[in-house]
Amino acid sequence: MQALDCPLVVCSNTSPLALPEPQRAAEQLRVLAERAARRGLRIGLEALAWGRHVNKWRQAWDIVQRANPSISGSVRRQLPHGFVG
């Protein structure tokens, strides 16, 4: 990732075992983003349209804001097969 100078993208969880806990997701994203920042990387959270609890970009953005937006961000891209705003 460093050689390509691009962010690491993590996606919302699709598992039926996923918990609807945005604060926990934010804490986990913060830990991941801090580890990535030590290596000069940024983390982006993408809300998959088929994600179990986070399936809208606004939900992902809320988690990023809770985590630490200075070392992470949200990824927003439009897919022809199911983008949900």
Work out the helicity level: 25-40%
SSE arrangement, N to C = EHEHE
Number of helices: 2
In which order are the strands of the major sheet placed? 1-2-3
Would you tell me the structural class of the helices and strands? alpha/beta
Instruction: Please tell me how large the radius of gyration is.
Output: 13 Å
Explain the layout of strands and helices.
Elements: E1 8-11, H1 22-38, E2 43-46, H2 57-67, E3 72-75
Parallel strand pairs: 1-2, 2-3
Helix pairs in contact: 1-2
Plain-language structure description:
- It is a single chain.
- Helix content is 33%, strand content 14%.
- The chain is built from two helices and three strands, in the order βαβαβ.
- It has helices at 22-38, 57-67; strands at 8-11, 43-46, 72-75.
- A three-stranded parallel β-sheet has the order 1-2-3, with helices on one face.
- Helix 1 (22-38) crosses helix 2.
- The longest helix has 17 residues, at 22-38.
- It is globular and about 35 Å long.
- The termini are far apart.
Q: Which descriptors apply to this entry?
A:
85 residues, alpha/beta, 2 helices, 33% helix, globular
In short:
33% of the residues lie in helices and 14% in strands.
